[in-house]
Amino acid sequence: MALLDETAKIISNTCVGPRLWVVTLKAPQIAGAVLPAQFVHMRIPGMDDHILRRPFSIYAADAAAGTVDILYQVVGFGSDHLTTLQPGATCQMIGPVGTPWSVPEGARKVLIVGGGVGAAPVFMLTQQAKAAGLDVSVVLGAATKDALVTLDRYTQLLGTEPAVSTDDGTYGRPGFATSLVQEALHGACEAGQPFQYVAVCGPQPLMKIVAGVAADAGVYCQVSMERRMACGVGACLSCVVDTVNGKKRACVDGPVFDAQEVCW
Asked: How distant is the alpha carbon of residue 9 from its chain centre?
């Protein structure tokens, strides 16, 4: 599908946690075309001295309303400036960019893992899997309770709270989400109902460990490799990922990769 270049209008832009914001944009074309794990490349208004667009994963899309939600973390000048934009402001977005998640044909039981803001790029996958009638389990991890900003949406979608961990122990299991993933995979195997697919997005150490645990359990695993991007359309080679098949571009060859293909 050809990339869309759309003028999006900000509907709301809200702080939802420590340095975490959700912006909702009116972008009917992209909202109707985006697939789980795809992202947009945004030109943020008021940043004329910064010519490069910023990549943002799509958290949720409502094709009927023509809106997309983006969960973003304030980490630099661009994302900090984005927090100042008010409803009614417009920005140019190119998208949807990248490869989507791909649940293997015939898979009935899937495990979805989101660490930190990595919980956003797997939310639409969770929606899709639930709508398809799959048996879906979700593991969420965050640094602290206040950073679990996606928890309510996941709980509403699943009808039950997902397995949760926080690094500081302020909510759910103390420690890293990897222990919950290992427990889920091993428990499913022991019960004779193994998972057939794992999708994970989050910090690279989390994805590396989950990829290894999934491989040990014999379960196909995909990861979303986020990288700094300049062009976002595969031309500049600033977002390469080392794989067993050579260097690939996270923007157009990814962001989703077979976990066993990535050279960790």
From this structure: 22
Q: Do residues 132 and 107 make contact, with C-beta atoms less than 8 angstroms apart?
A: no
Decide: 167 and 202 in contact? Cβ < 8 Å. no
Instruction: Name the phi and psi angles at 129, rounded to 5.
Output: -65, -40
How far is it, in rounded angstroms, from Cα 173 to Cα 238? 37
In angstroms, the CA 30 to CA 67 distance is 8
Token pair, residue 91, equals 């920005």
Rounded Cα distance between 80 and 37, Å, is: 23
Q: Up-side HSE of residue 88: CA atoms within 13 Å toward CB? A: 1
Chain segment 44-94, per-residue pLDDT in tens:
888 766 667 888 999 999 999 999 999 999 998 889 999 999 999 999 999
CB atoms within 10 A of CB 247: 11
Q: Contact, 13 vs 69, CB < 8 A?
A: no
CA distance 186 to 200: 17
Which tokens sit at 250? 């996270």
Contact 67, 11 (CB under 8 A): yes
Measured from the Cβ of residue 87, the count of other Cβ atoms closer than 10 Å reads 12
* Residue pair 172/166 in contact by the 8 Å Cβ criterion: yes
pLDDT per residue as tens digits for the range 156-209: 999 999 999 999 999 999 999 999 999 999 999 999 999 999 999 999 999 999
Q: Tell me, rounded to whole angstroms, the distance of Cα 114 from its chain centroid.
A: 7
Angstrom distance (rounded) from CA 167 to CA 241:
28
Chain-centroid distance of CA 24 in Å reads: 16
